[in-house]
Amino acid sequence: MIEVKDLRKSFDEREVLKGISATFEEGKTNLIIGQSGSGKTVLLKNLVGLIRPTNGEILYDNRDLTKMAGEELKSLRQEMGMIFQGSALFDAKTVFENVYFPLEMFSKISKEDKIKRAEFCLERVNLKDAGHLYPSEISGGMMKRAAIARAIALNPKYLFCDEPNSGLDPQTSLVIDDLIHDITKEYNITTVINTHDMNSVMNIGEKILFIKEGSLEWTGTSKDIMSSTNEALNRFVFASDLFKKVKQAEMKEATAQHQKPTTNQI
Ligand SMILES: Nc1ncnc2c1ncn2[C@@H]1O[C@H](COP(=O)(O)OP(=O)(O)O)[C@@H](O)[C@H]1O
Ligand SMILES: [Mg+2]
Hints:
Bound molecules: adenosine-5'-diphosphate, magnesium ion
Shape: globular
CATH class: Alpha Beta
Number of domains: 1
Order of helices and strands: EEEHEEHEHHHEHEHEEHHH
Structural class: alpha/beta
Strand order of the largest sheet: 6-7-8-3-9-10
Largest sheet: 6 strands, mixed
Low-confidence stretches: none
CATH topology: Rossmann fold
Strand content: 15-25%
CATH superfamily: P-loop containing nucleotide triphosphate hydrolases
Oligomer: single chain
Number of strands: 10
């Protein structure tokens, strides 16, 4: 579990995170949702230690990241897997070499076991036969899968994904969502996903944290979302393309029902 307490981050004089307190649960997909510019990426970067907060605590199973430095921070970061926007694969390395890289850098197991581990991770994301290809030779969905394989190479306890579906079509997005969800369950990972994709929210949102202008506005499950009376959350949810379509379909249905003749008219 990851717990943040009164997390604040300012750039110059501007406060971008305004005192967020929240928990991210083990073995669950924890989704951070919110409009573009609301502070999702800044929050994620604070969680992984890429940005230092102005104030607050970030507790990894009660170990405070904000008080760590050197070896301690390095070893905690080895427990984290990350998938950032755009996959960030090494263009000059093959898919296999990309997945092998963190093992080569950080793992103390034998070379033979590293190769086996990389092969296992590739197989897990269904890329067994694509290991020899370069990122430029594979599709966007395959790149994301390769990024997932690389992120899980070191058996992370924590997995962070910033907009994992950006640039993907809806169907491929579902495959990526399901993969992240299944891996979270299989290995009991604390997974934190930034998204503004309502499809993902409904598909894999076990715990949802809605951020508005740098503050935590609402927390709940995907079921709770539909019955929430929080106005800002409803505006966010119903502004999405998916829900516009659902609403339009509902309205069409209602109009059609209205126009249907009643039994005593026929
Ligand atoms: N390094 C930075 N320096 C100054 N402002 C930043 C920096 N990074 C992000 N911001 C600002 O913080 C706000 C939140 O950004 P971000 O977390 O990227 O939003 P989101 O991911 O929700 O779209 C934005 O207004 C952005 O301009
Ligand atoms: Mg972002």
